[in-house]
Specification:
2 copies of one chain form a homodimer.
Chain A (H helix, E strand, L loop, with lengths): L4 H19 L4 E2 L1 H8 L3 H10 L10 E2 H11 L6 E6 L3 H7 L9 E8 L13 E3 L3 H8 L3 E4 L3 H14 L3 E4 L12 E4 L2 H21 L1
Parallel strand pairs in A: 3-4, 3-6, 4-5, 6-7, 7-8
Antiparallel strand pairs in A: 1-2
Helix pairs in contact in A: 1-2, 1-4, 2-3, 6-7
The structure holds a DNA duplex (24 and 24 nucleotides).
Chain lengths: 211, 211
DNA sequence: TAGATTGTTAATCGATTAACAATC
DNA sequence: TAGATTGTTAATCGATTAACAATC
């Protein structure tokens, strides 16, 4: 399996670039075009494609439509991805209202919260009691979950999800979650992202002053 | 300058581990202890420290307090980091209420929004008109900014920030922002994070079925 | 002193880039 | 055909790991 996160990010970048080429009326693109658009080398583009089993035509490049379709399939864009969200707090609500998901085929089908006041079955994305989570996942065969609950309950939510058959989790809780070997865990630690910015600003500032 | 994001993440992990060792009453730790706690090799720990100019004592390991202090300083934890937030929508509000910032010395000092209805100078973190952004940054010498506005206005906010002297940006808008060479940009693309999970779940699922 | 741990150098591993034969 | 582009192999680059001399 392709193990590196960067491959997937590049794949997604190629996809965005392809959309733009399509809009400009391109029927086919060369590895050079994509490389320029995404900011990588053309070797990288061809290497990536070869890795994912994508082939083009020598001299003819890649058909935009065909290539788009192949990348869509790799990224699971050829079908709607149903996702459950646990935690209807501030981050949970932001995700429920996040507009970049739906047009990309990602659908949060239900949210869950332990707080009775948050429960609401009438909203487009219903907010259900946390106790219903396991049954819901099993019944609807959901594979992807988002954890947006406080640190101290994140692991127990994770355990429930795995028990119910979830295969991949995006975790917003600032804690290292334990899964099993079959579970993909991706941590979105907002504090860490900001700390990264802070570190590099400080480091850059220091080298500058030294010059 | 240390260019790799992973170094900073590991540094932050060492820091968390150190806090736990401290709680357990450790006065000093060995590279082996830290390696176990963080899940890297002890070579890596020592290599990282050597890179950041951190030295220990042969045989004696590292003093927990001293080491913590050094890492704190590298990560800018020895002082409060003031940050401005632009965009008081769903994500913006989630960040305003994000509890993991303040105890780590990250303070959102003001938020800005273009929508009059969102303006509120009385809240602990005031929400001010977008027009005041540039003056505010300059007056308070803010170096770090968070962009949580819609895609179509993100670049113009970025431009204003740079104009005003911002040195680092955490960007939540799903778009590639252009800065200049002195500006650190870190993109927190939530959709991309979720797409990563989806990709690996699909890829893992396929290899499994093949077995 | 004997044993253990650092700090650094060398070896390995993995990812990116360059080069070029195949070929359209 | 001549020229251009792919797909892949080899070379390079960078990051991680192993090994070990220095030394506490």
């Amino acid at each position: 399996m392709i193990a590196n996160k960067n491959y997937v990010i590049r794949l997604s970048n190629y996809r965005n670039a392809l959309k733009r080429f399509k809009k400009l009326g391109f029927i086919r693109v060369f590895s050079d075009n994509l490389a320029d658009a995404v900011g990588v080398s053309s070797s990288q583009v061809r290497k990536d494609f070869s890795l994912f089993g994508i082939t083009g035509n020598k001299k003819g490049g890649y058909q935009v439509d065909e290539l788009t379709k192949k990348i869509d399939s790799l990224l699971g864009k050829d079908r709607v991805q149903s996702v459950v969200l646990v935690g209807a707090g501030k981050i949970g609500k932001a995700l429920i209202n996040y507009k970049a998901f739906e047009p990309e085929g990602i659908r949060i089908v239900a949210a869950f919260d332990i707080d009775e006041k948050e429960i609401n079955r009438k909203t487009p994305i219903p907010v259900l009691p946390l106790d219903d989570l396991e049954v819901y996942i099993k019944k609807n065969k959901i594979e992807i979950g988002i954890i947006a609950v406080p640190e101290n309950v994140a692991q127990s939510v994770m355990d429930t999800m795995i028990e119910a058959g979830i295969k991949g989790v995006l975790n917003f809780a600032p804690i290292h979650l334990r899964g099993n070997d079959d579970t993909v865990i991706n941590n979105a630690n907002l504090r860490l992202e900001l700390e990264n910015v802070i570190y590099f600003v400080n480091a850059l500032g220091k080298t500058k002053r030294k010059r």
